Amino acid sequence: MAERTAISWADATFNPWIGCTKVSPACDHCYAARDNERRKWVDGWGAGVPRRRTKTWSDPRRWDRKAQATGYRPRVFCASLADVFDNEVEPAWRTDLWQLIRETPHLRWMLVTKRIGNVAKMVPADWPMPHVGLISTIVTQDEWDRDWPKLARTPAAWRGVSMEPLLGPVDIGEGRPDWIITGGESGSVCRLTRPEWVRSLRDQCRTHGIAFHHKQWGGSRPAENGCLLDGVEYKEFPAALAA
Fold it and tell me: How many Å is the Cα radius of gyration of the chain?
């Protein structure tokens, strides 16, 4: 819910609502659930807890006007504190989100989900939209084998995979997303991402012409640990998101 973000692969974040349920090993140490304990955005976190619609829906329209004036189309991460394809969200809210996205064609929307299997039944009739990409969070080989085929079958302007936190080696096989993002888990309690796992994914991306973006190593001091892999910073974007 900010025009600026420290996330290296996004320019802005927008949350149409707040709240979610953990559905993946990636969620075990969820930063949003952890931050909610302090910020109290919603009364708890998980199944059966009502999601809260935010009051920031005018922000993307403002960003869109600015983008039209300046010529730079920001990359908007939706949603960092929720999941657009959460089946516990009011369907009318999602309908409103699709209309907002239609009305902001100068933004480059990035919908990130851990529920790729829900997408086909929740997108509108005019999907795919040319300024909207779809990113599935996949953090283990088992998740790749299960979820990449679903993502590959889902129409989208472009497709990405977020492997953060990367929890093991992943062989993408015949999979060809447009973008792979890797990253380690952050926090006082975190599972470490091994360099050889990231290195393997970098090499697979190079072989197959996939944009590769290593966000961070994470750990208890993510700023100190940085993002270099073999002394190199990898911050690539697919063609649809290139500056």
Answer: 17
- What pLDDT digit, counting tens, does each position of 8-50 carry? 999 999 999 999 999 999 998 888 888 888 888 998 898 999 9
On whether the CB atoms of residues 86 and 51 are closer than 8 A, the answer is yes
Residue 166: φ, ψ to 5°: -70, 120
Distances from the Cα of 84 to the Cα of 52, 73, 122, angstroms? 13, 21, 9
- Whether domain 12-241 has CATH 1.10.1660: no
SS3 readout for 80-129: CCCCCCCCCCCHHHHHHHHHHHHCCCCCEEEEEECCHHHHHHHCCCCCCC
Q: How far apart are CA 72 and CA 53, in angstroms?
A: 28
**Exposure of 91 by Cβ count < 10 A (0-12 exposed, 13-18 middle, 19+ buried)?**
exposed
| Neighbouring-strand partners of residue 136 | 113, 161
What would the mean pLDDT of 199-203 be, rounded to a whole number? Answer: 99
Is pTM beyond 0.85? Reply is yes
Domain extents in the chain: 12-241
CA-based nearest residue to 1, from 39, 48, 50, 34: 39
- Is 176:208 a contact under the CB 8 Å cutoff? yes
**CB 173 within 8 Å of CB 139:** no
Could you read off the pLDDT of 98-133 as tens digits, one per residue?
Answer: 999 999 999 999 999 999 999 999 999 999 999 999
